[in-house]
Design a protein that fits this description.
By secondary structure, this protein is of the alpha/beta class. It is 24% helix and 33% strand. The protein has 2 domains: 43-172 and 232-284, 3-Layer(aba) Sandwich (Rossmann fold), CATH 3.40.50; 174-228, no CATH class. Helix 3 (73-80) links the parallel strand 1 and strand 2 (86-91). Bound molecules: S-adenosylmethionine (SAM).
């Protein structure tokens, strides 16, 4: 696991590589460019999806529905990696969809047309049956009631081919249940801060924010805010099974010699409740 100083913050702070983002001040910066430059790099997710599906189903998956797609970056990667792939990218908000279209899809010309962006609610969207549905960066934690989570998982199960796979990521461990703030400087001239407010002990509700600060001292506070419930792994697995999935596998991250996360996720049925951890849950239809 990646153990940070003070109270570690995992959320939105992993699976990234250094990017060049040209910006100088809060006034000139583009918050999606900052987000993609500091938070989200879907390469690891992409490789995990292909490898995990192929290992069980003995074929290369071709169709993906990216729920909570934001800028649709995973979908863009999906269709570039194989000539017969298709993706549906679903998000409620037209702004990141449009940004992602202009940044990631339009430049690809004909290839980019293999991604269908849908500005819709994941609870209601209708798409052709796909082999894989994803809900990454903990976005599905927006559903704070069990009944709503069950409705969502049922919707996903119905949207999958008969041998389809649903993948979510999650974080946990005692440090995820308390307030934390963690910053790091990015090479391209800004500082990224993840702030998580204290978890409500009764509802498990948390409010989280991403802030950016620039070398000239200007700040973009609350560039992104997330209001979530912290869900436990066993309860999510139980809801997936109740929603109709046949089996749910947990993929746990290994550690390097310094105890930091090594980015390699392996199937596990038991694990130590480290201070902070992340995992994938893979539900099979
Ligand atoms: C944390 S962002 C995730 C973006 C992207 N998947 C990533 O990992 O970087 C969450 C996204 O979920 C979208 N969202 C929230 N509730 C939704 C819903 N019910 N249906 C579809 N999209 C939703 C928001 O508009 C936002 O773009």
């Amino acid at each position: 696991m990646v153990l940070a100083t003070l109270v570690p913050c995992f959320a939105m702070a992993r699976k990234r590589t250094k990017k060049t983002v040209s910006l100088i001040t809060a006034a000139s910066a583009d918050r999606y460019e900052l987000y993609e430059g500091s938070v989200y790099d879907p390469d690891a997710d992409h490789d995990f999806l292909v490898k995990t599906f192929q290992a069980r189903r003995k074929r290369r998956p071709l169709t993906l529905r990216e729920d909570f797609a934001g800028t649709s970056k995973l979908s863009a990667l999906w269709i570039q990696n194989h000539g017969k792939t298709k993706a549906w990218a679903v998000d409620l908000d037209s702004e990141p969809l449009r940004w992602g279209y202009e940044r990631h899809l339009e430049p690809l010309g004909e290839v980019g047309k293999r991604v269908v962006q849908l500005q819709e609610n994941v609870l209601e969207v209708q798409t052709p049956k796909v082999e894989i549905v994803t809900a990454f960066n903990f976005s599905y934690w927006i559903f704070e009631q069990r009944a709503l989570m069950l409705t969502y998982f049922r919707q996903v199960c119905a949207a999958l081919e008969n041998d389809g796979m649903f993948v979510v990521d999650l974080m946990g461990g005692p440090d995820v249940q308390q307030a934390c703030e963690e910053s790091r400087e990015e090479e391209s001239g800004f500082t990224y801060t993840w702030e998580q407010e204290t978890m409500d002990a009764i509802t498990n509700h948390i409010d989280c924010h991403i802030h950016f600060e620039f070398e000239d001292g200007t700040k973009m506070m609350k560039a992104f805010t997330y209001n979530w419930r912290v869900w436990g792994l066993p309860e999510l697995r139980d809801i997936m099974l109740e929603a109709g999935f046949q089996a749910v596998d947990t993929f746990w991250e290994g550690a390097d010699k310094h105890g930091a996360g090594d980015g390699i996720f392996k199937k596990a049925s038991s694990a130590e409740n480290e201070a902070t951890w992340i995992a994938y849950l893979v539900a099979w239809k």
